[in-house]
Write a structure and sequence with these properties.
By secondary structure, the chain is an alpha/beta fold. The chain folds into 2 domains: 15-182, Rossmann fold (3-Layer(aba) Sandwich); 187-387, Dehydroquinate synthase-like, alpha domain (Up-down Bundle). It is 48% helix and 11% strand. The strands form 2 sheets. The protein has a 6-stranded parallel sheet with strand order 1-8-5-4-2-3, sandwiched between helices. It has a two-stranded antiparallel ribbon with strand order 6-7. Strand 6 (151-156) and strand 7 (161-166) form a beta hairpin. Helix 9 (279-301) crosses helix 13. The longest helix has 23 residues, at 212-234. It is globular. The termini are far apart.
Length: 388
């Protein structure tokens, strides 16, 4: 029996999960601040119930709306509002974009300089040295797990890439995960975010940095996605399916924050910065192809790799069959993508002549470092070709 490699595990200071948890946000927030800035999605009106809950606890709350995925410029504008109105609490209320933006704003509000001082890849990558403003994360989608991760993904349009601000200080003080908040998600968003959740459970499980704690979380989450993503897509009012998917998303966030991701997310960063494609849709389009090419490369170059046993375990959980082979798991994911009507990457404008620049950027992405093995340039471009 092999010795367990040393590992660490970090997450939000407090996690509150369950239907109805949202109704108690005001009580929790009262201990953290009195002047909040709520960062939400495109429709600022969706934050009105939250403002009401905060007002009941004598917490004044302004709202800052993020249209689409957060850019560096949007974060700078939110920071200006925080400083001008002397906010002492930041709340992310919405999908992963709103939550990531809130975490970034909370961190940058207390650290000197500008965002590029701290951003990976396109910035100077300096470490954050001061604790963030208190931050509460309230997801309204089930996919990103951003409420429990220690990074915030921001787009830099001038560099045509998405990059991370990364620090333990980005972990929220409180994560409130209420499955009831996801009931009104349309089928298309349910599909994208749900497959992002599945990706963020499979990639940490086969990751080069997997550990016993994240293994348990991943297997539990994969099982819940396997039984509930289809029902959530076909009937968004199904409470059991919504609960399973909200928990699976949370488990994926816990896992990726502590075991890393892989090639799917290595591609997602540059593609999301170069094309108008939702993050979850990119992951969904790439997942079965990357699984297959990873497994093939492992058989060819590392036939005794632990990751091959892990891919087989994923297939067994997805299919519910103890005799399932890796290929059965890959086909299960591919069939799910077809049923959920996931478009090919070509629908977002990606063409064969783009493969080289995308692959080059993907090789530099932080997520690629945890892939179970290093894929060569030909394999990376094959992933893109087959995902079109």
């Amino acid at each position: 029996m092999e010795m367990i490699k040393p590992f660490e595990f970090a997450t939000a200071a407090r996690i509150v999960f369950g239907n109805g948890a949202f109704q108690h946000v005001g009580e929790h927030a009262r201990a953290l601040g009195r002047r909040a800035l709520v960062i939400t999605g495109r429709d600022a009106g969706r934050a009105k119930p939250l403002q009401g809950l905060l007002a009941a606890e004598e917490i004044e709350a302004g709202v800052f709306s993020i249209a689409g995925e957060p850019s560096v410029d949007q974060v700078v504008r939110a920071l200006e509002q925080v400083r001008q109105t002397e906010r002492d609490l930041i709340i992310g209320f919405g999908g992963g974009s709103a939550v990531d933006a809130a975490k970034a704003v909370a961190a940058l509000a207390t650290n000197p300089g500008e965002p590029l001082d701290y951003l990976e890849v396109v910035g100077r990558g300096k470490p954050l040295t001061r604790p963030s403003l208190p931050c509460i994360a309230i997801p309204t989608t089930a996919g990103t797990g951003a409420e429990v991760t220690r990074n915030a993904v921001l787009s830099s349009p001038e560099h045509r890439v998405k990059v991370s601000l990364r620090s333990p200080f980005l972990l929220p003080k409180l994560a409130v995960v209420d499955p009831a908040l996801t009931i009104d998600l349309p089928p298309e968003v349910t599909a994208w975010t749900g497959l992002d959740a599945l990706t963020q459970l499979i990639e940490p499980y086969v990751s080069a940095r997997a550990n016993p704690l994240t293994d348990a979380l991943c297997l539990q989450g994969i099982e819940r996605v396997a039984r509930s993503l289809r029902p959530a897509f076909h009937d968004g009012t199904n409470p059991q399916a919504r609960e399973d998917m909200a928990l699976a998303s949370l488990l994926g966030g816990l896992a990726l924050a502590n075991a890393g991701l892989g090639a799917v997310h290595g591609f997602a960063a540059p593609i999301g910065g170069m094309y108008p494609a939702p993050h979850g849709a990119i992951c969904a389009g790439l997942l079965p192809v990357v699984m297959e090419i990873n497994a093939r490369a492992l058989r060819e170059r590392q036939p005794d790799a632990e990751a091959l046993h892990r891919f087989r375990a994923v297939a067994q959980v997805l299919t519910g069959r103890p005799d399932a082979a890796i290929s059965d798991g890959i086909e299960w994911v591919a069939a799910l993508c077809r049923e959920l009507r996931i478009p090919g990457l070509g629908s977002y404008g990606i063409r064969a002549e783009d493969f080289g620049p995308i692959a080059e950027k993907a090789q530099k992405a932080s997520s690629m470092k945890a892939n179970p093995l290093t894929l060569n340039r030909q394999e990376l471009e094959e992933c893109l070709s087959r995902a079109l």
